[in-house]
Amino acid sequence: MQLDLTETSLPVYEALASPVRLKIIQLLSGQPMSVQDLAGHLDLSSAIVTKHLRKLETAGLIVSKRVGHQKISSLHVDTIEVKFPQAIYPDFKVHQTTIPVGHYTEYSVQPSCGLAGPDGYIGKVDNPKFFMFPERMNAGMIWFNDGYVEYRTPNFLQRGEHLEMLDLSVELGSEFPFSNNTWPSDITFSINGKEIGTWRSPGDFSDIRGKYTPDWVPDNVNQYGILKILRVTDHGTYLDGQPFTDVCLDDLPTDQETWTIRFEVKKDAKKSGGCTIFGQGFGNHDQNIALSAFYS
User: Fold this and answer.
1) pTM for this model (two decimals)
2) Domain of 277?
3) Measured distance CA(78)–CA(208) in Å, rounded
4) In whole numbers, what is the pLDDT of the chain averaged over residues?
5) pLDDT at residue 89, rounded to an integer
């Protein structure tokens, strides 16, 4: 589950702001439990426990179902990520371009693979030939088990403009037939032929529906990914604000006509769990792949 600093996420924060409800989550992390079992562990009445469970259920943190005469509760999420607004060097000017996820210029993928648009699947699922289908331009989500997709976007830097920082923003996840919230995958980023680094995606998520994922997408397949912000500077590369690799701007060819961006799951990856790329109209972030070149 991904949260932000808006009122939409407030029910989750309110649900977690209770020692009793935190203890309930800890108990349910071991196994599903009935109201009576939870009441016994917490030394509380069943009525009070039921009120706490309703709060957790409203927030989407647990689910409950009737089994005979008992109401059994279980955890519905295993990870919560909170994204804070980031201020990024407002004194720099910026050339920014966005790339729809279906506008790749080169690819080599293996099943399971496919493309999805606002109204349904594009071409046939698990057939790499359809990655060259003209309708791919309408894709809002693509996925593949191993291989790569590559994108190109113009390099608008002019003579006399000094590149200070390069940001790549994209929503990514693993790829598993249907979904698997615990399915790690090593996804490698490259820019202009230079390998920047490898991020391990924790899973292929469907614990809740993506905020922008179309209604036609079944509940049990990829719903959303994790927004990753890759930042290359003159002193190294950062991922979501944390040190990532030693690759610097000086390591990148920056005088080319275009920026070439590759997302890849290598054959020798330690965790080869596929890759899903979410674009506008899918996932939790209503955006395409974004590249920002900050300059002075």
Assistant:
1) 0.76
2) 86-295
3) 11
4) 94
5) 52
